[in-house]
Amino acid sequence: MEVCQVLHMNGGRGEKSYAQNSSIQRKVISMTKPIAKEAITNLYRNTFPASLAIADLGCSSGPNTLYAVSELVKAVDEVRRKLGHQSPEYQVLLNDLPGNDFNAIFKSLAGFQEDMRKQMGDGSGPCFFAGVPGSFYGRLFRRKSLHFVYSSCGVMWLSQVPEGLEDNKGSICMVGKSPPSVVKAYYRQFQMDFSLFLKCRSEELVAGGRMVLNIYSRKSEDPSSKESCYIWDLLSVALNEMVVEGIIEEEKSDSFNIPVYTPSPLEVESIVEKERVLHH
Ligand SMILES: C[S@@+](CC[C@H](N)C(=O)[O-])C[C@H]1O[C@@H](n2cnc3c(N)ncnc32)[C@H](O)[C@@H]1O
Questions:
Q1: H helix runs in the chain, sequence order
Q2: Which has fewest Cβ within 10 Å: 6, 172, 273, 280?
Q3: What is the 151 CA–ligand 1 centroid distance (Å)?
Q4: In sequence order, what are the residues at sequence separation of 6 or more whose Cβ sits closer than 8 angstroms to the Cβ of residue 220?
Q5: A single Gene Ontology molecular function, please (predicted)?
């Protein structure tokens, strides 16, 4: 089954929804805000675009979705006021996989726009929103149509479960005790996916455009270090117990693997560098 056809965070606003269970991801957005603000304000100061297209890739649904983009728009507005410039028009492109609860985002837009108008005052915007369903491991936007690409906690999701995980028994992801073939298979998939991601964005961004990506990663260069997969390891333990209790079949549990890879900073850098050399 294709990951991009089935993967989605829980929609709505119920107890088990992503909206109610995404405070860690919100913290990530908040902690990295200065970096994103600096990147978008530099972009604005260097190019003064009359209209500014911002894409949030893997935006999900819930309070984080509009939080990230509102901070970006407010950062530009602050600078353009200081400089005494007329506001650019903003186009905000919200991307996620087709199973995402886009309706929940669309329903919240009117209230959000009203809040933004109050916060930014007259003379700012307008801000046009669009939902863009599809996988970011492919082209999503017109050539040279984006000024700023943002993505938080999305790019560690792989496009598919790597091939060659037959020996990953008893685990649902890459863990300390995974055989080297499993570790290699995960890294290979991340290399392919992230390279494709960069290639697609390089086609979509305007010259001088910027991109800020928050990726769950690990500090250690050792791919099987505990920090990469602690949460999934806990889930593996729970699943294994369910197998012992006969609640799920062992074969099913063994064939289930999560399409997530947490790269090290060096791994990310080396793929970025490879793409830079390839496309210059
Ligand atoms: C952990 S959520 C992060 C959501 C939001 N950016 C935040 O910070 O709260 C990751 C999101 O990435 C989306 N995602 C995963 N793979 C994707 C892909 N190939 N293309 C587009 N979105 C994807 C998931 O559907 C999910 O909504």
A1: 3-6, 23-31, 33-47, 63-83, 102-120, 180-204, 226-244, 250-254, 265-278
A2: 280
A3: 8
A4: 227, 228, 264
A5: methyltransferase activity
**Closest Cα to atom 16 of ligand 1:** 157
Q: Average pLDDT over the chain, rounded to whole?
A: 90
Q: What's the token pair of residue 197?
A: 């991601």
CA of 215 to the centre of ligand 1 (A): 11
pLDDT digits (tens, 9 = 90+) for 67-105: 999 999 999 999 999 999 999 999 999 999 999 999 999
Pocket of ligand 1 (CB under 6 A): 4, 7-9, 22, 25, 29, 57-60, 64, 95-97, 100, 135-137, 152-154, 157, 159
Question: How many CA atoms lie within 13 Å of 243's alpha carbon, on the beta-carbon side?
Answer: 17
**Which residue, judged by its Cα, is nearest atom 14 of ligand 1?**
58
Q: Given strand 51-57, what is the order of strands in its sheet?
A: 127-133, 89-96, 51-57, 146-152, 205-214
Does some domain include residue 224?
no
pLDDT band at 1 (very low <50, low <70, confident <90, very high): low
pLDDT digits (tens, 9 = 90+) for 212-268: 999 988 888 887 777 767 778 888 888 889 989 999 888 888 888 889 998 999 999
**Domain tally for the chain?**
1
* pLDDT confidence of residue 135: 96
Per the structure, the complete domain to which residue 115 belongs is given by 1-154
Asked if residue 241 is part of any domain, the answer here is no
| CA 57 to ligand 1 center in whole angstroms | 7
Cβ atoms of residues 34 and 25 within 8 Å: no
What is the C-alpha separation between 247 and 258, in angstroms, rounded? 20
Q: Quick check: is 223 in a domain? A: no
